[in-house]
Structure to design on (505 residues):
């Protein structure tokens, strides 16, 4: 099977922050999971480099827009390996391949009689690159603002329009019959309600600035940034050549986005695609926002979280784990250093790392660094075997549904069962009273450690890979297709090193 997952392309008017890291890591986790599930997986990210906001930011720095976006895009690209993410492509909307694809999409919509020229008059937010109805705005001191405080301005200009209003019924059909493509459910209900409330045709070009993809056959217009930006998902897999192998293999894809841009991805984008005779996305997942120590993150408050700083302070895998264990994926969460230390100490240092350390060290010292498989299982052993099976089934379901926090909770439940089993069986006592039974106990626990490490691999790849190396298991051997619940071969152990030092609270 094939699997295509994308982040939104990130707007280059400022430096990357923890929100960008969160989305990119989420996609990396899902991508890694699908790879070890033996899917042919394509992971795309990139930068959105056109629009009035970018043009203004470049002018403020006295740079031409292309030089400005070249510098800013590099910041986002350089962050990817630092986050431990493995991508297949990095798309930039100023690349010629993308300009060609966006113009081809425009032409297809035009050929299908989905675009017309008229005049636009209404409220526009430069910061959001979005148009708003007055009912969506709040009035403060005689001026209008969006819900999140973005100022809007009244604009009137000639514009091309997309016939969005004609796609209301088709969109509802897509939502209701395409296995509920929008996640989580609260966002699905929100989008469905919005569309059922009625759609108006959408302005898709601008004439008041020049930094954008030129509209075919009318150089006075540039494409509205969203029709340009959204097309990136097609560009990376070879559009407009829909017969090429990548396009046939990977489309339709899965989009992971912040909740603030859900409407563009769940309403406008599927409508563009269907109007261009293309399939709509397979799934659109909208995640929540982070606060910092209980406060909304903003430059004006000076509390923007720099991913480089926080990862250098706490460790890459520690932050990757914390971000997806602390809150349900899809809901808002609070980022605090106290919470990071508490979570890492409890789960990674104690429950996982300490179990590995004490069991592997014990095997190395008392069993010549190896344990043989056993069929002499007691009822308690068989119950533990069932717990492993149940945990794996639950994990695979949750990963498929992008319930990332539930996946991690399930792993920790299994590891806690393993710790309780060790305490009750007391292999250090069995060493002298019943050495054969001791080896069975160690065999059962090592199975859980290995299975848990494989399940943790998408989340904490460096640490899980190191843990698996203690059992002479390499990354390229990880696969769910040969994921037997109890290992049938001899388990050889290398001397372990501590994986997760505790943080002082």
């Amino acid at each position: 099977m094939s699997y295509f997952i994308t982040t939104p392309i990130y707007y280059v008017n400022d430096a990357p922050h923890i929100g960008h890291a969160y989305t990119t890591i989420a996609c990396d986790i899902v991508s890694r999971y699908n790879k070890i599930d033996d899917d042919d997986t394509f992971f795309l990210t990139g930068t959105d480099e056109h629009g009035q906001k970018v043009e203004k930011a470049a002018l403020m720095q006295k740079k031409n827009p292309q030089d400005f976006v070249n510098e800013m895009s590099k910041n986002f690209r350089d962050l990817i390996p630092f986050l431990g993410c493995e991508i297949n492509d990095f798309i930039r909307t100023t690349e010629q391949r993308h300009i060609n694809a966006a113009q081809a999409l425009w032409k297809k919509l035009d050929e299908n009689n989905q675009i017309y020229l008229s005049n636009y008059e209404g409220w526009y937010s430069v910061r959001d690159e979005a148009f708003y109805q007055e009912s969506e705005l709040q009035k403060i001191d005689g001026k209008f603002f969006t819900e999140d405080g973005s100022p809007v301005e009244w604009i009137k200009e000639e514009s091309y329009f997309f016939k969005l209003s004609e796609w209301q019924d088709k969109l509802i059909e897509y939502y209701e019959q395409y296995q509920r493509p929008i996640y989580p459910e609260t966002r699905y209900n929100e989008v469905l309600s919005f569309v059922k409330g009625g759609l108006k045709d959408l302005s898709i070009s601008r004439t008041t600035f020049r930094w954008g993809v030129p509209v075919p056959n009318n150089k006075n217009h540039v494409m509205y940034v969203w029709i340009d930006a959204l097309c990136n998902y097609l560009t990376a897999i070879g559009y407009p050549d829909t017969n090429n192998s990548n396009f046939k293999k990977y489309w339709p894809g899965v989009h992971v986005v912040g909740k603030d841009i859900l409407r563009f991805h769940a309403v406008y984008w599927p409508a563009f695609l269907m109007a261009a005779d293309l399939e709509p996305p397979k799934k659109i997942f909208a995640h929540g926002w982070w606060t910092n120590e209980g406060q909304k993150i903003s430059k004006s408050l000076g509390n923007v979280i720099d991913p480089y700083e926080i990862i250098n302070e706490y460790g890459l895998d520690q932050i990757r784990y914390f971000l997806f264990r602390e809150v349900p994926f899809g809901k808002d969460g609070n980022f605090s250093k106290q919470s990071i230390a508490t979570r890492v100490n409890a789960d990674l240092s104690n429950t996982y790392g300490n179990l590995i350390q004490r069991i592997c060290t014990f095997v190395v010292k008392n069993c010549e660094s190896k344990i043989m498989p056993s069929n002499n299982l007691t009822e308690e052993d068989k119950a533990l075997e069932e717990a492993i099976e149940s945990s794996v089934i639950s994990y695979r379901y949750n990963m498929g549904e992008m319930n990332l926090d539930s996946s991690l909770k399930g792993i920790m439940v299994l590891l806690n069962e393993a710790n309780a089993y060790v305490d009750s069986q007391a292999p250090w006592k069995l060493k002298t009273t019943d050495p054969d039974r001791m080896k069975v106990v160690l065999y059962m626990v090592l199975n859980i450690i290995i299975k848990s490490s494989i399940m943790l691999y998408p989340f904490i790849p460096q640490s899980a890979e190191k843990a698996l190396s203690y059992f002479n298991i390499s990354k390229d051997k990880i696969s769910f297709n040969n994921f037997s619940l109890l290992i049938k071969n001899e388990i050889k152990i290398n001397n372990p090193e501590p994986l997760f030092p505790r943080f002082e609270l």
Observations:
- The longest strand covers residues 115-125.
